Amino acid sequence: MRPILAQFLARRYESVKSENPGKQRRYWQLRVLREHEPTESPSESVMNIFTQDDDPYDEILSDVIGGIVIRTDFSNEEAWNAFSTRLKAAEDEISDGGQDTTEAGPSSVEGSAPTQVTDVDMEDGYDSDDSEEENVDGKLIKIINPTQPEQRAIFQNISNIRALRLFNDVDIRPAPPVPSGHKRFSPPHPLVDYAGWQEIYTGVTLWVYDSTSNIDQSARLISAEGDIYGTATGDSWRAQVSHIPDLQLNMTFEHMKINFGGMDRWDYSERKRNLAEAEMLES
Predict the structure, then answer these.
(1) Which domain holds residue 254?
(2) Bias category Acidic residues: which stretches (predicted)?
(3) Does residue 146 form part of some domain?
């Protein structure tokens, strides 16, 4: 967490927490940020003491070292089962050391990583296959597949920014530099550039299975912060399921970043949706 956000939280976090009982850490942090959009340069460091409160999704993420696949469409079980099977097969290839990483990453990755795929039953927390070997370091990829109607309603067709706010913690950073000859983003927006700052998120990598996934067996990969100037936090692009484990492996252990060589090739329709929903602070 950056010092300027910690300063805002030091002033208002406890008050916002008491004013909004029944919410959770990520909601309280975001509410404070909305009240104090930064308009000045950061000052000296402030001790970060605002990540200790529980959040309902922390337990789900406690054994994840890489990313999660969130199921947000429940209309086609056959397609979903095919996706899950292909994801597990791709993970097994990495575990067996047989995956060629030249397509998905900038370089080959030596060694292997824990790669269990686990469906999560949101009703009782975890519904794991006990026959799978556990690794104390955690899972590279975990599936979030709610089974109860009220739980599915939470995830049904959610936007990228909503997914980030459920599973990641909010932070801020200086917005990317404005290219020479270009104007600042207008009107100002926290996900792009608000007085020189950008709302970003930290935590596990998020992949989204949606209605398009039923057709082409791909998933949205969500960016937790903007890329070049004009791109937005929550931007996404689609990757085939067979490439997901390899991409996740490279991002987690090789710190690979997706940047399209400086081109803005992110999904504009999802960006537009995020920008429209950014002011909706849901718990």
Answers:
(1) 57-168+203-283
(2) 120-135
(3) yes
